[in-house]
Amino acid sequence: MGIKTKRPTTHSQRWMTYTDFAEITKSKPEKKLVESKKSTGGRNSNGRMTSRHRGGGHKKNYRVIDFKRNKPGVPAKVASIEYDPNRTSRIALLHYADGEKRYILAPKDLKVGEQIVSGVNAEPRVGNALPLRNVPPGTPVHNIEMTPGSGGKLCRSAGMSATITAKEGNYALMNMPSGEVRKLHLDCMCTIGQLGNIEHSAVSLGKAGRSRWKGKRPHVRGMAMNPVAHPMGGGEGRAGGGREPVSPWGKLAKGGKTRDRRKPSNNLIIRRRPRVR
After folding, report:
1. pTM for this entry
2. For residue 249, how many C-alpha atoms fall within 13 Å in the half-sphere facing its CB?
3. In sequence order, what are the residues at sequence separation of 6 or more whose Cβ sits closer than 8 angstroms to the Cβ of residue 22?
4. Nearest 5 degrees, angle CA 268-CA 269-CA 270?
5. Which residues does residue 142 pair with via DSSP β-bridges, in sequence order?
6. Do 112 and 239 share a domain, yes or no?
7. In terms of domains, do 88 and 126 share one?
């Protein structure tokens, strides 16, 4: 894939970039693997707004993705590489030898016509799914399970991959994209390779309307509001807020730890990710 720019016939197009979709081989999804998806606009079942700055956006259908890869030993042929509006990575349509069709996350360098397989006896090749126990250290992997049989939870966005640094007892030490080092059980499944669409983060939206297409509404700074609307609002001229950065409800917005101290998987984290300053 590559990043393209437009001839700037308008002001917004001067800064707009987009992907060339060169790897896409099929434009319409498989009908049997598509479900309807309702947009909530950030509101809960009572109609109250619980997530701000959401609403509008283009309609989307959900593509059912196989995160478990639970067809061991059944070979599958890659029929197409497709665009998924619900995620940053591409998806691949698999035609299994028994006639079933499934979508998976498409890793980098996976080509149409290739044959992939999952299971304990699978080779560590791009697209194959196998337990961490059988993956050689240093091999990039994605769509990693956190507990055996639960389905892939880690490294599912564009360009992501993790590597095994060591194996100790029943656990593998994984070096995550964030810099975190954590232990995962060796029976957890993963998929070999780095996810495709690597240059997704380099795309510049170029105009506000393109954010609205994604269902993102404007985010107004608290300092720009009136005192009745935000704790940091008010003041003559460009005031600095008069207090530390807080949420609209007065909770500190920066520096606080959000991870639950009682989370069971805390003891599996060997090294925390570096703190962003």
Report:
1. 0.91
2. 3
3. 1, 2
4. 110
5. 191
6. no
7. yes
For residues 88 and 214, what is the distance between their CA atoms, to the nearest angstrom?
Answer: 12
∠ Cα 133 138 141 (to 5°): 65
Residue 276 located in a structural domain:
no
Percent of the chain with pLDDT over 90: 88
Nearest partner of 142 among 123, 163, 166, judged by Cα:
163
231: three-class secondary structure by DSSP? coil
Residue 49 placed within a domain: no
- Work out the number of other CB atoms within 10 angstroms of the CB of residue 181: 17
CB 158 within 8 A of CB 83: no
Radius of gyration, CA atoms only, the chain = 22
CATH of residue 262: 4.10.950.10
Is 48 domain-assigned?
A: no
Q: Are residues 137 and 168 in the same domain?
A: yes
* H/E stretch holding 34: strand 34-36
**Pairing mode, strands 181-185 and 3-5:** unpaired
CB contact set of 25 (below 8 Å; sequence gap of 6+): 80, 81, 82, 112
Contact 183, 268 (CB under 8 A): yes
- Give the tens place of pLDDT for each residue, 163-198: 999 999 999 999 999 999 999 999 999 999 999 999
Q: In sequence order, what are the residues at sequence separation of 6 or more whose Cβ sits closer than 8 angstroms to the Cβ of residue 11?
A: none
Domain carrying residue 144: 3-39+54-201
Domain shared by 150 and 17, yes or no: yes
| Same domain? 110 vs 194 | yes
| Separation CA 19–CA 24 (nearest Å) | 11
